[in-house]
């Protein structure tokens, strides 16, 4: 280690490896070599995974690396379902397990995962750990579990049946479940619904945030933001970008604005080359892509992408078809765009963009013509939902398999709609608002059951809105329903 440190003193470079990283970090910390400590911290941070995050969290308690310590702990919380099945989790103390599972920002799709994790931890060393059962069970949000699961898995578990305090705790939850709302965990992601139309021509600037764990919308509108509809939205690098669309006099714009989620302020960034209303927007490889749209005269074939680092738009190859009011998504390093309107007909056609070759390729057409369609990547497939076929507002949905270049139908939505928001949040596909008549209705699709279910309506009826999903926010509580209310 001294040899590496002396070499670093002379050359300002060092070869950090898996085998020497921890010892080098400890030595550099002891000798207060701040730059070398930071190099080691960067090395650990890049390699954080479910197998090592607890180890990094534990050893940074002893040494002065507060940022790495917090990032490791955040990784534990945000990847808990994988972490809880690793070897490191079994070596934690009861206090550390309690500190993890009591957190609001522990990310679990189902609270059952927390119960199963503490059972695994206790049964690893039952004689030493059974005495902590009631302490740890009290941190599980039992009231957020289905009653059937509590009765079939919790009440029947030997750790619970052998502990009178645990039995009383679970029985009380079952007795009060219909009357007392439990404290939900924070969601891993927030769905934003931005702008749109109330009715036919009344634009708005309303922004609502959907807390999926509480099934409730929260208004976070900034009054200074201009009215906007038929725009695209994207979340990238801690900012929400609103791209193109129509302004308050219904003229297509090339304007792009971004919302800083930490300061909740807007600023303009570089405009696009083309004015694009009814634009299709997605994110790929750290860039925002904008395709097609209506410039006030014609539906466009052109496409371009934005690099945040340079604040610059660059053109790419034009699409095979002119499209406005289409929708697009990113899957496996490619962009898929489907449907839309070419100026004379509503389109069935779909195509795919490969950024490595800068080429668009037509893929199999959808089974229905769809303008104002919602397109999203979900479960390694491309979903095309709703839209307008020239005659009817559609409820139907179909799925594209890129491996077979084929489409097949899935269950239809409950409400026909076009020009709506679509996103995936916590393994469910949400559709938001839209037009058959302008609606605040929200529903979601679960691919495991092939069923649609109602979610909480937005506060505002709107169509021609855009949605995006925020994840890994340090200030997630600013965009969720307060847990203490």
UniProtKB/TrEMBL annotation:
SUPFAM superfamilies in alphabetical order: Kelch motif (SSF117281), POZ domain (SSF54695)
SMART domains from the UniProt entry: BACK, Kelch
Xref: InterPro entries: BACK, BTB/POZ_dom, Kelch-typ_b-propeller, Kelch_1, SKP1/BTB/POZ_sf
Signal peptide feature range: none
Keywords: Kelch repeat, Repeat
Every BACK domain range: 53-155
Superkingdom of origin organism: Eukaryota
Protein name (Swiss-Prot/TrEMBL): Kelch-like protein 10
Organism: Parambassis ranga (Indian glassy fish)
């Amino acid at each position: 280690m001294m040899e590496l440190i002396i070499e670093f003193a002379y050359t300002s470079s060092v070869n950090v490896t898996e085998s020497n990283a921890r010892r080098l970090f400890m030595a550099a910390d002891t000798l207060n070599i701040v730059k070398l400590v930071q190099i080691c911290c960067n090395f650990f941070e890049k390699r954080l995974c479910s197998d090592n995050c607890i180890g990094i969290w534990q050893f940074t308690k002893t040494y002065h690396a507060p940022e790495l310590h917090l990032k490791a702990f955040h990784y534990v919380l945000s990847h808990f379902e994988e972490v809880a099945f690793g070897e490191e989790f079994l070596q934690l103390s009861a206090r550390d397990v309690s500190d993890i599972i009591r957190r609001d920002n522990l990310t679990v799709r189902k609270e059952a995962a927390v119960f199963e994790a503490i059972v695994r931890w206790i049964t690893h060393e039952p004689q030493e750990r059974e005495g902590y059962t009631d302490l740890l069970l009290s941190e599980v949000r039992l009231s957020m579990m289905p009653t059937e699961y509590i009765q079939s898995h919790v009440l029947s578990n030997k750790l619970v049946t052998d502990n009178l305090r645990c039995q009383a705790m679970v029985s009380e939850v079952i007795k009060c479940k219909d009357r007392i709302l439990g404290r939900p965990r924070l969601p891993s992601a927030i769905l934003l619904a931005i702008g749109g139309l109330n009715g036919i021509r009344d634009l708005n600037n309303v922004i609502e945030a959907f807390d999926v764990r509480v099934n409730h919308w929260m208004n976070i509108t900034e009054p200074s933001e201009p009215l906007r509809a038929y725009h695209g939205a994207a979340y990238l690098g801690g900012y929400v970008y609103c791209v193109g669309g129509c302004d308050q006099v219904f003229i297509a714009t090339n304007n792009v604005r971004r919302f800083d989620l930490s300061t909740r302020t807007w600023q303009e960034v570089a405009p696009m080359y083309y004015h694009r209303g009814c634009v299709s927007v997605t994110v790929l490889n750290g860039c925002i892509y904008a395709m097609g749209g209506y410039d006030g005269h014609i539906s466009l074939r052109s496409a371009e992408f934005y690099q945040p680092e340079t604040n610059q738009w660059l053109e790419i190859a034009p699409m095979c078809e002119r499209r406005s009011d289409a929708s697009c998504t990113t899957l496996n390093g490619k962009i898929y765009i489907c449907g839309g309107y070419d100026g004379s007909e509503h389109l069935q056609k779909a195509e795919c963009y490969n950024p490595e070759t800068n080429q668009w390729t037509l893929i199999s057409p959808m089974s229905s013509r769809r303008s104002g369609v919602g397109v999203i990547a979900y479960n390694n497939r491309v979903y095309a939902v709703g839209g307008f076929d020239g005659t009817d507002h559609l409820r139907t949905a179909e799925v594209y398999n890129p491996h077979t270049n084929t489409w097949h139908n899935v269950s239809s939505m409950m409400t026909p709609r076009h020009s709506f928001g679509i996103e995936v949040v916590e393994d469910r596909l949400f559709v938001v608002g839209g037009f058959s008549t302008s609606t605040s209705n929200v529903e979601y699709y679960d691919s495991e059951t092939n069923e649609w279910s109602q979610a909480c309506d937005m506060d505002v009826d709107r169509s021609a809105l855009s949605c995006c999903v925020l994840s890994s926010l340090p200030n997630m509580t600013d965009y969720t329903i307060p847990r203490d209310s």
